[in-house]
Amino acid sequence: MFKYIIKRILISILILLGVSFVLYALLRCMPTDFVEQKILNLYQAGATTSDEFIKQMYKTYGLDGSIIEGYFRWLGSALHLDFGKSFINQRPVLSEIFDKNRMGTSFFVAAVATVFEFLIAIPLGVTAATHQYSIRDYVITILVLIGISLPSFFFGQVLKDLFANKLGWFPVSGMKTAGITYANAWEAFIDYARHMFIPILTVVILSIGARMRMTRTNMLEVLNSDYIRTARAKGLSENRVIYKHAFRNTMIPLVTSLAGLIPSLFSGAMITETVFDLEGIGKYALNAMTQGDIPVIMTYNMFLAALSVMGILLSDLMYAVVDPRVKLA
Description:
globular; 15 helices
């Protein structure tokens, strides 16, 4: 197993290098860059610029050379753990990306939503599979497909209008009530939770579809297995057959998929955070993308790429642990 892990780590390094080059090349090929947008703002403000000033601007932001030259400059700095400064506010990129408030908000939303996603999706998938082609199965499938099909920006606005604007149960947006002083930490947490409720509900409803369909498909496959027919032939109760024998094997793909959730816990829900005005890492990354902030975008995406590679490796190892039939060799 040690040799397998070392081999996968070496392959992962090559993958990350390839991802970093493709990502940097795509960013440099965008129709507009940060310097062009800044010069356009100067023109709109009535200022004049010379060619020498524009060239100096490109040199200042490291965009004066070719894509190959710019990439190797970035790579050389990254190998020394220097990811540069944000074009927008000139702060170190690492402190911007790993800001505890920004990252903490995204992690809280994603973690809580993931827990509820599994708690809801797995029972729905099991009951849909055990009542295949029944009214219950059709109703669950239709509702799940509706959830999958709805765009997050549209569904988030619908929930905001219903629970915040019309019913007034929860705040419309933001992360805390403006101008309020908390008597203790519990009041601060309650206010924070009220602001997070609708965003988390949005993420949960839009996420359970894929997990439910995976559970239903795996459960149907297991229920048609020979050992399930044998268990039924021995006279075991249906609940014992489903929840003791079938469900354990149904959980194998679900358990291994947990490792793939690692990047989503830190990536942030870009659209949802924007709709509800949450200061999370997703909203920050989206803003950096629209303004062409290359250092921030590169660091953010490479961080997610590293988490994805690590998640895939953990998923493979976890699969071998939960399923004795799988051998790493």
